[in-house]
Design goal:
CATH architecture of the largest domain: Alpha-Beta Barrel
CATH topology of the largest domain: TIM Barrel
CATH superfamily of the largest domain: Metal-dependent hydrolases
Number of strands: 18
Order of helices and strands: EEEEEEHEHEEHEHEHHEHEHHEHHEEEE
Helix content: 25-40%
Strand content: 15-25%
Distance between the termini: 28 Å
Oligomer: single chain
Shape: globular
Structural class: alpha/beta
Number of helices: 11
Radius of gyration: 22 Å
Largest sheet: 9 strands, mixed
Bound molecules: zinc ion
Number of domains: 2
Length: about 475
């Protein structure tokens, strides 16, 4: 039996190119690593006398081969809220969308990932259930600074904190007085501290005479104005000036009006990175019907002008990459029956659709070199963010053999049945998207096939 698996095609995206080229990539099956990349070489089965099994010679033809994607912002919620999501369903959904690495957020599971013991409990729960590779973010909450360095040693990819209530009581938000000891502890380490950047500094608003309708999206949007994001980013950049060597990151930027602040911080040389999400790039407030909490997330989806400006920020490099922030819950908490947006759980379910969403919207906008940019935003950038820049996100010798065969032309309609995550509620149901993943390979192993479904068993590792 051959120890290698060959991937060849007319349209392969290799690092550094502006577009796809014919190429062949060889993966060593025993290590799962890419051992040979041949640009401008189109192989035939008969070139390999030692490859005997059909499954070890994969000819993608005119379909596109890209590196496996890395989603650096996912809530898998297990253990503790496994009815919301789970390692099994969440990573299957990810794999069906061409994601080969998922980095799990420290909150919404019980326990949260705020101590090494809790991290071990999560790893225990995840064992044998991961269809993609999985890494973990740690959490910074008030008073847990003694746990931060041990969490780094135990392998967390970095840390996440909230500047506004998180929505779950076991993961309280932090204020400046909590952040200073945490940043003091983290400075000098190669880690990254990620912020949910909304900060409410306004005095409590007087009770309105006629209460706003809780089923109207506008009511929710008004309750989370861009000023919250701006106030948070001001605090973050002022703290950053005191800890300029510590890498900081802003998760799910929604307010484009914060981009000038970000531009100033970045041009002063501070190691600050920014992510936005598929929903901010593909949806806008005016499209959101009344009574549909599936569209609720924090910070909120804003105007179409805001959406345009986020695309501009992304193209200019002010926004570094794009993630899902897949954050589901059970149907009851999403309040879909009564359409109560104000009291619904805030979080959008996306896993499996990200690449198609970005591709559909990017094509509409006629973004130049979209494939190159998509790989940068969904694989190279996110891999680097999670400290995986030498193993994930590129079809390069020494990297993991994570490959996706993808058809950029095919159109499909999102149906409940097509979703692989646990609670099948998403704002994208009914939308027709362009571009669909055909096969996903993790370290050389076929994980998902659009026709055949999933492989027999999961082969994901912890990264
Ligand atoms: Zn999140």
């Amino acid at each position: 039996m051959s120890s290698k698996r060959i991937f060849t095609g007319n349209n392969v995206y290799l690092p550094g190119s502006d577009n796809v080229i014919p190429a062949t990539v060889t993966v060593d099956k025993s290590t799962g690593k890419i051992v040979l990349v041949e640009p401008n070489v189109r192989r035939k089965r008969q070139d390999f006398t030692d490859v005997t099994a059909d499954e070890d010679f994969i000819d993608a033809g005119d379909k596109v081969i890209i590196p496996g994607l890395v989603d650096a912002h996912v809530h898998l919620n297990e253990p503790g809220r496994t009815d919301w999501e789970g390692f099994w369903t969440g990573t299957r959904a990810a794999a069906s969308g061409g994601i080969t690495t998922v980095i799990d957020m420290p909150l919404n599971s019980i326990p949260p990932t705020t101590t090494v013991a809790n991290l071990e409990e999560k790893r225990q729960a995840a064992k044998g259930q991961c269809w993609t590779d999985v890494g973990f973010w740690g959490g910074v909450i008030p008073g847990n600074q003694v746990h931060l360095r041990p969490l780094i040693d135990a392998g967390v990819k970095g840390f996440k904190c909230f500047l506004i209530e998180s929505g779950v009581e076991e993961f309280p938000c932090v204020a400046e007085q909590d952040l200073v000891p945490a940043m003091e502890t983290l400075k000098g380490t190669p880690t990254v501290l990620c912020f949910h950047a909304e900060l409410d500094t306004s005095p409590a608003a007087p009770e309105a005479t006629t209460p706003a309708n809780p089923t109207h999206y506008q009511t929710f949007l008004t309750s989370r104005p861009p000023e919250l994001e701006i106030a948070a980013i001001k605090l973050i950049t002022s703290l950053h000036a005191r800890y300029p060597s510590l890498r900081l990151h802003i998760v799910h930027l929604s307010a484009s009006s914060a981009l000038p602040l970000i531009e100033a911080a970045k041009s002063s040389g501070l190691p600050l990175t920014i992510e936005t999400c598929f929903h901010y790039l593909s949806l806008s407030a005016s499209q959101i019907p009344h009574g549909h909490p599936e569209f609720k997330c924090c910070p909120p989806i804003r105007s179409s002008t805001n959406q345009d400006a986020l695309w501009e920020g992304l193209e200019k490099g002010l926004i570094d990459f794009v993630v899902s922030d897949h954050s589901p819950c059970v149907v009851e908490l999403k309040k879909v029956e009564d359409g109560d947006i104000m009291n619904a759980w805030g979080g959008i379910s996306t896993l499996g659709l990200g690449l198609s969403l970005l591709w559909t919207e990017g094509k509409k906008r006629d973004v130049k070199n979209l494939l190159k940019k998509a790989v940068q935003w969904l694989a190279v950038g996110t891999a680097k963010h999670a400290g995986l820049e030498n193993v994930k996100g590129k079809l390069e010798v020494g990297f993991d053999g994570d490959l996706v065969i993808w058809d950029p032309e095919v159109e499909f309609t999102v149906t409940k049945e097509s979703l692989n995550f646990k609670n099948k509620l998403t704002p994208y149901e009914g939308l027709t998207l362009k571009g669909k993943v055909q096969q996903t390979y993790l370290r050389g192993n076929l994980v998902y096939d659009a026709v055949e479904g999933f492989a027999e068993k999961p082969v994901g590792n912890f990264v």
